[in-house]
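#lab-general

N.A. 3:47 PM
ok so I finally got the sequence cleaned up, no stray characters, all 94 residues accounted for. can someone with queue access submit it? mine expired

B.Y. 3:52 PM
send it over

N.A. 3:53 PM
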Amino acid sequence: MVLPHLPTLVKALPMDDAVRIEPCEGVPIFRATLRVQERIEDLLDKQTEGPLDDGEERELAAFEELDELLSLVNRLVRNAMEPDGRGEPLARSA
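B.Y. 4:20 PM
back already:
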């Protein structure tokens, strides 16, 4: 599977303190950090007051891509850890 905008997303987001991993019933769940969530809320609040500038629009779009990516990763992890073994492995052994 190829995620075409992943390189753009990685460049757009700060590398430190953007994603955290929380265990939930033995399954690791990837989530945006509180700092990122607060920034998203700030941008959405500002957007209701008026238009965002170009940099803020790009930042909000990058956060939307991050949300999509984390959702995908979480689905893959959950499927791989299904107890009935139906999930596909995350990595294939050579």
